[in-house]
Amino acid sequence: MTARISTGFPDLDGVLAQLVQGARLVLGADFVAAFLQGSFALGDADGGSDVDFVVVVRSALTDAQERAVLALHRHLWSLESPWARHLEGSYFPQELLRRADPAATPVPYFDNGSRDLQHSAHDNTLVMRWTAREFGLLLDGLNPRDLIDPVPADALQNEVRDTLHTWGADLLSTPAALDDGWRQPYVALSIARMLQTLDSGQVHSKRAAMTWAQDHAPSWAALLERAWAQHPGQFSRVGQPAQPADLDLTRGFIQFALDWTQDGSPASVAAQQLRLYNARDLDAFMALWAPDARLYAHPDTLLADGAPAIRARHENRFREPHLHAKVLHRAVLGTVVVDHELVTRTVAGQPGVLEVVMTYEVRGGLIRAAWLLAGPLRTP
């Protein structure tokens, strides 16, 4: 099947047409498909995006095919269009692409801006497979949904968690690696994407992750907004120093993410209970409270003694159609998490808003006690 190539950038469409035509020519009957993944698949590409492609072949490229593919990409790189120097992607054997590859087998790969073929596992991930299967933008050949098995959410989250732990630790251990005007905002947005995947079990764009952080990591929202604002001209800042203040904040955000992903950490428990509160998933929400947990009105008025009483307080609340909590600021100190929230409730069928400060004591992965301080309810 040949698809009409339409990315929203006619100049890029012409480059991709030459990529597909050239791949078909040099691969012949071994050509199976070509598609885009990454930001063009997820719908948030702009003039500063790279172009993440995958070409699927029946079997591993022969030496002669690799030489022909290299010649094709050197020709593409020499085209007048700037998009030609922002192609990044891999040539995948069909069977290798279908499912997870624990061996992380390297495949022929062209890095963004490079004329040279290398062998890399850069794209041999579940993140790529999930994105391509769910949102891949077909250029030619078979649809990615017919080539890639469904990716379980837990497997996707495990891969992202492992990547975050390894990459985050490396970045913090080599501080100079972040001091680049392109890399610093890229890292900040990429870390936010990883956290959103861990929260949702899906892959999201950088812009979507920035929006997600406004509710789930509000202390870092301004950093991410500045990072996203730099995205359109990102490659022009390669090799330039990063903004010192944002450099320090990004290191802090990486540490926050590493702490957030530790199973049972106070920050992760607070984040999970907020997500489940907004999802109105009462059973999963209550699984985060200790059986003998207590809920107080600040400072010491007991509202609910034990998980059954806390559950009873939330049963009717979770039926409210407007119920939603947004964290304005979160502070974590040891086992204590303090959330400043804007909460929407339903009052006489209409939305009402109040500010709330919730303090949680979290030990052993469970909320042991919580204190509520609520402001006045405001209705339209």
Q: What's the short story on this structure?
A:
The protein has helices at 10-27, 39-42, 63-77, 94-98, 126-135, 144-147, 153-173, 183-200, 206-216, 221-229, 244-260, 266-279, 282-286, 307-315, and strands spanning 31-36, 51-57, 87-93, 107-110, 118-120, 137-141, 289-297, 301-305, 324-333, 336-347, 350-363, 366-374. It is of the alpha+beta class and 380 residues long.
Description:
Strand 10 and strand 11 (350-363) form a beta hairpin. The protein has helices at 10-27, 39-42, 63-77, 94-98, 126-135, 144-147, 153-173, 183-200, 206-216, 221-229, 244-260, 266-279, 282-286, 307-315, and strands at 31-36, 51-57, 87-93, 107-110, 118-120, 137-141, 289-297, 301-305, 324-333, 336-347, 350-363, 366-374. The longest helix is centred in the middle third of the chain and has 21 residues, at 153-173. Helix content is 42%, strand content 24%. The chain has a 6-stranded mixed sheet with strand order 5-4-3-2-1-6. Strands 8-7-12-11-10-9 form a 6-stranded mixed sheet. The model has no long low-confidence stretch (mean pLDDT 92). It has 380 residues and is of the alpha+beta class. The chain has 3 domains: 10-147, Beta Polymerase, domain 2 (2-Layer Sandwich); 153-260; 280-374, Nuclear Transport Factor 2, Chain: A.
Strand percent estimate: 15-25%
The first-to-last residue Cα distance is 54 Å
Mean pLDDT over the residues? 92
Strand order of the largest sheet: 5-4-3-2-1-6
Structural class: alpha+beta
Number of strands: 12
Give Rg in angstroms: 24 Å
Whole-number total of structural domains: 3
Residue windows where pLDDT falls under 50 for at least 5 positions: none
CATH architecture of the largest domain: 2-Layer Sandwich
CATH top level label of the largest domain: Alpha Beta
Order of helices and strands: HEHEHEHEEHEHHHHHHHHEEHEEEE
Question: In percent, how helical is the residue content?
Answer: 40-55%
Query: What spatial form do the alpha-carbon principal axes imply?
Result: elongated
